[in-house]
Amino acid sequence: MADQIFKNLFIYICDNQGYIQMVVHSIDEDQTFVENEKIFDNVLPDSEVIWHSLIMPSEDIKNPNHLKVFLACREGETYNCVLALLGENQVMVLGMKNALQQYLIEEILKINAMLTNKFRRLYKEKTDIKLDTYDEISKMNNDLANARRELKKKNFKLEELNLQLEHLSTKDVLTDLFNRRYFYSFTHDVALRAKRLKVACSLIMIDVNNFKKVNDNFGHDSGDKLLIHLSTCLKNTFRRGQDTLFRFGGDEFIVLLEASTYEDSFFAMQRLNNLYEKDSKGTSLAAGIIEISYEEIQDDFTEFIKKADLLMYAEKEKNRRLFV
Fold first, then answer.
1. Which among 1-10, 129-138, 173-182 has the top mean pLDDT?
2. What's phi and psi for 52, nearest 5 deg?
3. What H or E segment, with its residue span, contains residue 286?
């Protein structure tokens, strides 16, 4: 680990304007800095005040060798840097990749524990007495370090569980599309974007004709496979990042198309039908399409759903009459 840390560590000597005078150790010249380059040109904005106050210290700073910390960025990589004044005209900069900071802390803890145990053994050999109090303090120190590591692991697992719970609360288990619950919270942001950009959006309500016959004749596993097939067709038809797909319940689906007109949705449905028919198991799709202008859009999409639902069922009735 020490070798890995050293390979990702740089040490420079700079003048008081930030120009590198000597490269003591560098990670990679393509990624870090070279002689005569001004390292402070790469300091992140939030760190600017820190190094500026160090290069031109105020009168209340008594110790010229005090340390300062700042962040530098190069080629998209962030570095944690420590800067110390060597004199009136020179500073030393020590930095490492941000990702390795935790490894360094763990390495320091290991070294600290090793030196503590070595000192305890040497002291016991020298004095030849029992150090009950010292042993207890040392044990508490080790227990505290272990507890911190365990807490970090548990916090990481908790974050993973929270992400999983968030996924389960917003996604449909079978199709991995967003669910009905998420739809009603999502429409608020859609309405805000439509009003801000002054663009219309479209809503498509989709239902599978004769879906019940698939379940009755072939079993619910076949019905589930058909819904998965439809969800795959939806993902391959509509625009990622702009059209949002929902399984609203049973064999009903909703597509919300932002910055889209009725015509856009109509042609998208034609593409969806062509994909779906390749493995439709004798079923077809009924759809109700509406366009929502930015003047009429609102957070509550209940009325819009009702309108699309009526259009969809009118198409289902038309399909039913054709096959009676």
1. 173-182
2. -65, -40
3. strand 284-292
- The stretch 58-84 carries a mean pLDDT of 64
What is the layout of strands, in order, in the sheet containing 20-25? 20-25, 9-15, 90-97, 77-85, 67-74
Residues 20-30 have pLDDT tens digits of: 888 888 776 55
How many other β-carbons are positioned within 10 Å of the β-carbon of residue 170?
Answer: 15
Among 45, 71, 99, where does a domain finish? 99
Total residue length of the chain: 324
Long-range contacts, stretch 38-42, CB < 8 angstroms, 24+ apart: 39/12, 39/14, 39/72, 39/93, 42/72, 42/73, 42/74
Helix, strand or coil for residue 186? helix
CA pair distance 190, 22, nearest whole angstrom: 55
Residue 231 and residue 80: Cα distance in Å, rounded?
46
Residue range of the domain that includes 113 = 102-167
Taking the C-alpha atoms of residue 158 and residue 180, their distance in angstroms, rounded to an integer, is 26
Q: Which token pair is 288? A: 């109700």
Dump pLDDT digits (tens) for 268-286.
999 999 999 999 888 999 9
Contacts made by residues 233-240, CB under 8 angstroms, sequence distance 24+: 233/272, 233/275, 233/276, 234/177, 234/272, 236/275, 237/268, 237/271, 237/272, 237/275, 238/268, 238/272
154 and 283 share one domain:
no
Structure tokens at 88: 């009136």
Task: Quote the number of domains for the chain.
Answer: 3
At how many degrees (to 10) do helices 211-218 and 220-237 cross? 140
- Indicate whether 215 and 277 sit together in one domain: yes
Domain boundary among 99, 129, 158: 99
For residue 62, being part of any structural domain is answered with yes
